[in-house]
Amino acid sequence: MQANVLEWLEGTAARLPDRTALWDETEQMTYREYREGSVKIAGAILDTLGQSKCPIVVYIEKSVKVLVSFMGIAYSGNFYSPIDIDMPSQRVDRILEVLQPKLVITTRALRPEFGKFAFSGEFLIYEDVLAAKEQADMEGQVLEAANRIIDTDLLYVLFTSGSTGIPKGVCITHRSVIDYTDWVTETFQISREDRFGNQAPFYFDNSILDIYSTMKTGAELDIVPKKLFSQPVRLLEWIRERQVDTIFWVPSALMVVSKLKAFRNVDLSHTLKRVLFCGEVMPNKQLNIWRRHLPDVLYANLYGPTEITDACTYYIVDREFQDDESLPIGIPMKNTEIMVLDSEDCLVTEAGTVGELCVRGTSLSTGYYNNPEKTAAAFVQNPLQTAYEEKIYRTGDLVQYNERGELIYLSRKDFQIKHMGHRIELGEIETAASSLPEITMCCCLYDEKKSRIVLFLDKELTREEIGERLRAMIPEYMLPGRVVYMEDMPLNANGKIDRVKLKEYL
Q: Are 95 and 169 within 8 A, CB to CB?
């Protein structure tokens, strides 16, 4: 039986030592080097900290160095928590207050910057650790620490912003990542021959699929230079040059490519094999552009919050959709149970009936770090089973089944409003608006003070024009009372539309 994720790195480094494991613009590493660097980091942690099961912060720009630090922390028997180097100071201080870490791994250049935060613990400087001569007994100490890890030990804590912007530390165990990665590699037939193009920041849970699917199978993980996401043609050229065959991106990143018609300039028909996406709704209008240009690629819509180890349902696109249709989030992943519960906590099974998506299984987080109140509110006893303790996670997402038995995402519970006596899902308005040819990105909010629906668009259209065209798709009472043109739709650090920022325009 597998007790921790490091068994994959041990096995792959032994089996494929000279295979390229990681690549960024300045550095690349083989699997042997990946393991050796991680062991060095682990040894330094054990010398400095002398403890296990503790949070260790990684404060390094997105690079190969971050992943080596993650695995070094895991080898030491501790768990990692990355902090974005561009994160506002106030948010960093909140995270440090929750974690109370005793150790931070950073670089020589970034060490002075960390001085502005409320931290008084120890530092490990990445370059210095990797440059140090190996101690004779280092590997033995590290492997001894790693062998003490059991699958319910924490692997990482990722902080989510949530709808309120207040960070919560989601705790995920080795067991949950093993379960998820086994499913991913089996379902999408990942092998050592594959090469991933990573878009997700390493503090965002979408990166878990990239990191561990490649480590398990011996595939290569290439970090896409961030600047390329504002240069769609160059981005596709980079995919072709690097021979990337698998991407797992947020829909906003995919939409940048389709919006600017980059496919006219670059042919990826002999390069890409898999296009996976997760994190927000993927409009079929934009997906259809990808499908027209790359019809032989496997497309899959994954759904799930950070609290269930990245994803819990999936839909492999297997039929045609109209631009204004909703793309299913599909069916449960293996070893995961999905329950749709109504307001009375009764099980919803009929097509078209709205309920909250709840999840049961190995994928569940153990809760929010140092936050028992939020944990108790979200991770609750299964109301359908009262004979023994069985936790489920309430996602706060409203869904319904279609006539095929597939799940359709509608909206957040907190995106559900009551307007003019009607209960309205703001996501339904967004789906209708995003189907219009001129619109690539849109977001719908409700102005409580003025009791009106506000639609933000990336195309300059009047309220009258929008209303006239949406009337064919949504009822009159759902039409926006105000339309706001945003030349540059604000995105949060994870590449999703920043709803908190948009609220400032209400």
A: yes
